[in-house]
Amino acid sequence: MDTHSAHEDSLNKGSITLLGGVAMGTGVMIGAGIFALTGQIAELAGPLFPLSFVAGALITALASYSYIKMSNAWPSSGGIAMILQKAYGPGVVAASASVLMAMSMVINESLVARTFATYALRPFGLEENALLISGLALGLIVFAYLVNAAGNRSVSGFSLVMSAIKVGGIAVFAVAAIWASGLFAGAFTEPASLSNGEALLASVAFSILAFKGFTTITNSGGEIVDPHKNVGRTIMISIAVCIVVYLLVALAVGSSLSIGEIVQARDYSLAAAARPALGDLGFYFTVAIAISATTSGVIASVFAVSRMLTMLTEMKMIPHSHFGMKGGIRSHMLVYTVVIAGTLAVLFDLSRIASLGAFFYLVMDMLVHWGVFRSLRKKIGARASVLLTALAADAVVLAAFTAAKLKSDPAVVAYAVIGIAAVFVAEWIFLSGQRRETNTDSIENKVESGSGDHDRP
Q1: What's the pTM value of the predicted model, to 2 decimals?
Q2: Cα–chain-centroid distance for residue 312?
Q3: What is the mean pLDDT of residues 363-376?
Q4: Rounded CA separation 81/159 (Å)
Q5: Predicted confidence (pLDDT) per residue in 225-255, tens digit
Q6: In this structure, what are the phi and psi dihedrals at residue 220, rounded to the nearest 5 degrees?
Q7: What does R_g of the chain's alpha carbons equal in angstroms?
Q8: Number of Cβ atoms within 10 Å of the Cβ of 316
Q9: What share of the chain is helix, strand, coil (3-state, %, to 5)?
Q10: Is residue 70 part of a domain?
Q11: Would you say residue 80 lies in a domain?
């Protein structure tokens, strides 16, 4: 039995229902997309920022085509690693792109954890206290580890309850805020111009990041009930739910605050919008919803990335050490995931965490589309025009986002380039060492076999 099959057999197939998969997908997306990124999108796009969410949804729906086609053919837990290996073979490109995906997911965990901490501290006026934010973010990541360590059904059930609470709560907040402020108030009274189209296009990178939680579903494909049918359904339902929620919230925030006010409160823009529109009660209600949303987002993300790292380990695409810990690879990967996410949550602010996640994800996504187009489109019945359009859309957004960040924060571009290059170099070194060991073992076996033959009477 190969490692892929062994991994599949080790998981609880069919342990996640269609509804549970949607809850996980929306849990990751809404946790990051609304509470962590709305302010940053508005900072770039201005009064037109609701359009950025629409563009992000369209590009994500286009991008999901590759993942759905591949998942329908080969549903797998850790599915993105499977897609890349089938597209590129078990080499540096597949391994590096898989690691970039895992890194973007870990970055998302730290992003949402810091957002949780910011909203939790806002009622006390302590949202600028970096030490408290780091401590609370780390605490949430540890809690997410404990929930995940309890098993798949704990994650699915918890995500389902929390997603229902937050989707309903956010919808109530948005409708009430729009009703109180009027649709054409706040930021929407400011002049909007398409002359700065580059900034609007750059903001779509954050919007795409807000939707990338659909990959949580892809990475858990082997554990979803009737995966050949339900993985694709789960992805499209999740994207549809999120665009409705995102648009409602964008309209609510934009009608309650000016662009300047949104930017000033970009790490807690929903809470800032709730008070003028709905008063203190609305403010505390929004904070409570934000806490529940970000909590479920981190739990769902830890669930997905730990399984992806497990598959990468069993496919011998990344090194692994037990460091003296008991248990299997999956339990170790949970520990590694929360340690890395916790470190990032302590060291980086929200803006740079989100930017790094966007760079890593877009590069990985482009490699997926190109690999499927080049090697697999005929085998899975995918249309070349759709794959190339998705690839081009990612490339345009990445170029615009890079140009915008070079103007506003060139250091984060350097971090991203260094990080991506380091992943490829590290994978090249690791896989070269693996090949040398394999070749050495093969030679030694041949020598021993030859000696045995020679000694025979």
Answers
A1: 0.85
A2: 17
A3: 95
A4: 24
A5: 888 788 889 999 999 989 998 999 999 999 9
A6: -115, 20
A7: 23
A8: 15
A9: 85, 0, 15
A10: yes
A11: yes
User: SS3 string of 32-44?
Assistant: HHCCCCHHHHHHH
| Any domain includes 457 | no
Q: How far is CA 9 from CA 20, 152, 223, in A?
A: 21, 15, 10
First to last CA, the chain: 36
Distance CA 209, CA 50 (A): 15
Question: Taking the CB of residue 190, how many other CB atoms lie within 10 A of it?
Answer: 13
Phi, psi of 381, rounded to the nearest 5 degrees:
70, 35
* Cα-based distances in Å from 62 to 159, 175, 288, 354, 426: 26, 29, 34, 22, 31
More confident residue, 443 or 209: 209
Residues pairing with 224 in the sheet = 16
Q: Is 60 exposed, middle or buried (0-12, 13-18, 19+ CB in 10 A)?
A: buried
The three-state secondary structure class of 381 is: coil
Residue spans of beta strands (DSSP E) within 17-67: none
Residue 390: other Cβ atoms inside 10 A:
25
Range of the domain at 383: 3-318+326-443
How high is the mean pLDDT of the chain?
Answer: 83
More confident residue, 8 or 389: 389
Q: Residue 92, Cβ neighbours under 10 Å: how many?
A: 20
CATH code of 93's domain: 1.20.1740.10
In a domain, 385, yes or no: yes
Q: Given pLDDT bands bounded at 50, 70 and 90, which one contains residue 3?
A: very low
Q: Which residues contact 85 (CB under 8 A, 6 or more apart)?
A: 94, 98, 315, 317
Residue with tokens 């995966």: 227
Summarised one tens digit per residue, pLDDT across range 143-163 is: 988 888 876 555 556 666 776
Single-letter residue type at 389? T
Q: Could you tell me if 79 and 67 are in contact, meaning their C-beta atoms sit under 8 angstroms apart?
A: yes
CA distances from 66 to 232, 253, 397 (A): 10, 33, 18
Place of tokens 């992003």: 111
